[in-house]
Amino acid sequence: MDWIRAHDLRLTAYALDALRTLSSRGLAVYGPARAEDRGGVISFNFADIHAHDLASILDIEGVCVRAGHHCTMPLMEKMGWPATARASFYLYNTEEDIDALILALEKAATVFGIA
Fold first, then answer.
1. What whole-number distance in Å separates Cα of residue 27 and Cα of residue 19?
2. In Å, how far are 3, 23, 36 from 50, measured between CA atoms?
3. Mean pLDDT over the full length of the chain
4. Which of 10, 12, 70, 97 is deepest in the core (most CB within 10 A)?
5. Residue 71: active-site member
6. Are β-strands 41-46 and 27-30 bridged in parallel, bridged antiparallel, or unpaired?
7. Helix runs in 1-115, H state only
8. Catalytic, out of 1, 33, 71, 115
């Protein structure tokens, strides 16, 4: 279990750093900034792309994320978010999976005309 937690931390830190490269294009990550303060789950929105549309584009690119309220509809309403996308990492994921997520997000930016 210690190895799994260390692996999750490594992947989450890698993902947070990779996602930050898209923040200037409107990608917002929700939750603690440090991997040590969260599990292997990252919720985010990308500019004005609805989370369901984003999930569809990512799916076409071979990347699976969840989109929706994630059983937190009251929180989503309070925050003014229609939904979020959520990427999850575990022992079977690798840095290459996160790289694929970033490439798919860049594709979504192209599709939706985000500079």
1. 7
2. 36, 16, 29
3. 94
4. 12
5. yes
6. antiparallel
7. 2-20, 51-60, 73-79, 95-111
8. 71
CA atoms of 52 and 67, how far apart (whole Å): 5
Q: At what angle do helices 2-20 and 95-111 cross, to 10 degrees?
A: 30
Domain residue ranges of the chain, discontinuous segments joined by +: 2-111
Find how far residue 58's CA is from the centre of its chain.
11
pLDDT exceeds cutoff 90 at 44:
yes
Distances, alpha carbon 104 to alpha carbons 40, 65, 98, 101, in Å: 19, 11, 10, 5
Task: Name the one residue in this structure whose structure tokens are 């994320």.
Answer: 65
Q: What is the CATH number assigned to the segment(s) 2-111? A: 3.90.1150.10
Is the model's pLDDT at 71 over the cut of 90? no
pLDDT, mean of residues 56-77 = 90
pTM (2 d.p.): 0.91
Integer-rounded Cα Rg, in Å, for the chain is: 14
Residue-wise pLDDT tens digits, 53-64: 999 999 999 999
Average pLDDT over residues 41-68: 95
